[in-house]
Specification:
174 residues; alpha/beta; Rossmann fold; seven-stranded mixed beta sheet; binds S-adenosylmethionine
Length: 174
């Protein structure tokens, strides 16, 4: 992630699905961002994490699909979008998130990490989902992948639950 931040001059980091804050802490530890924002549906989780990370970032409470469009149009420079919101009452907002971001902004300078791709099956499937996990809409995922592929370089990392990574076409210079 540090390499992408440097190579593509990423200025803003947005995470959807704060959870217990591990991803947010990782982003904050990297440093160098003009802004770091996380969106979490569960207000109690958001409050618990905010207590530990302090005021150096913004945690928005609510449905990510309602927030990312506005973030996408208001953030000026290139952004990292780490999309990790799912379940716990929020369903599977990934496709709607990507659509909202791409409608609001030219993403050719941005980077995306779509986390836990295994939920959506192929091309990231590697075994059954853990008990209680609902399978996502594979076609909606492939539509998202195709939309990203039209403007960014898409690859997969099969570690953990699988990541789709979409990066700009070339290194940027300041
Ligand atoms: C897998 S956890 C996130 C883990 C976290 N990113 C990390 O790296 O530790 C998923 C989180 O997404 C949240 N969530 C689910 N649907 C959401 C939605 N539509 N908008 C915002 N957050 C959502 C859940 O409440 C849960 O906290």
């Amino acid at each position: 992630m540090a390499t992408w931040q440097r190579e593509y001059l990423l200025e803003h980091a947005v995470e959807t699905g704060l959870g217990d804050g591990d991803g947010l802490r990782h982003l904050l530890a990297l440093g160098g961002w003009k802004s770091v924002t996380s969106v979490e549906l569960d207000a109690r989780r958001a409050a618990a994490v905010l207590e530990h990370v302090g005021e150096v970032c913004t945690i928005l409470v609510g449905d990510s699909t309602q927030h990312v469009g506005e973030l996408a149009s208001s953030l000026g420079g290139p952004a990292l979008w780490w999309l990790d919101a799912h379940y716990d009452g929020g369903g599977l907002p990934l496709a709607a998130e990507v659509r909202a971001i791409m409608q609001a902004r030219d993403v050719r300078g941005d980077a995306f990490i779509l986390d836990d791709c295994r939920i959506y099956g192929q091309p990231c499937a590697s075994g059954p989902l853990p008990a209680g996990y609902e399978r996502g809409d594979a076609q909606a995922f492939l539509d998202v992948e195709a939309a990203l592929r039209r403007v960014l370089r898409v690859s997969y990392d099969r570690r953990d639950e699988g990541y789709l990574v979409a990066l700009p076409g070339g290194r940027r210079t300041a």
